[in-house]
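Dear Dr. H.,

I hope your travels went smoothly. While you were away I took the liberty of generating a structure for the chain from your last submission, since the lab meeting agenda had it listed for discussion. I wanted you to have the full record in hand beforehand rather than looking at slides cold. The sequence, exactly as received, is reproduced here:
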Amino acid sequence: MALESYSDITESQYDALRELGSIGSGNASTALSDMLNRKVTMAMPKVMMVELAKLSDLIGGPEEPIVGILVTFEGSVNGMMMFAMTQASARRLADFVLGQDTESMHFADMDKSALKEIGNIITGAYMSSISTITGFDIKSDVPHLAFDMAGAILSVPAIEFGKVGDMALLIDSSFDDATDDIDGYFIMIPDLKSYEKIIDKLGI
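The corresponding predicted structure, in token form, is as follows:
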């Protein structure tokens, strides 16, 4: 099936993409549990297709300070994935990994290193689940970490992939380790040809 634009994707195909997103974020939750050596559960994620221009509005607004962990992927499918979270959630994640309890929103080099490692593991787990389901060979790059307002951070994938498409798969996820909630967003942005390949592989 050849896709000329995102408007060609049917509702049943969107449903399959949403299910793929749910499986990927569930796999990421398991990887996070293993990394932290503590039980981490995940609420049922909200999965939606969103216009790139509206991403920041759904993550607290363009002026909301967030942390973004961005990886590019290539192989059978090409694109970007970002795990975005509030700075408060990033603080809790870094503290979990480093065994500390910090209230300051200042992130030292060790905090940033821990967050990069977290991003590498959970985005890798997400992409691994997609690779397993589709049989595609997908390789991801080294993660890039950014601290800024949502509008600034999300402009990077919007500018890059606005050349080839205008939609992203947004997975609104909430992780809970029984003491704290960590709210995060997986944003998957394959190019249109990659969406076509994924849909064909899923047989819909």
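Two observations you may find useful: The first strand starts at residue 41 and ends at 42. The helical segments are 11-36, 55-58, 87-98, 109-134, 150-161, 192-202.

With kind regards,
E. W.
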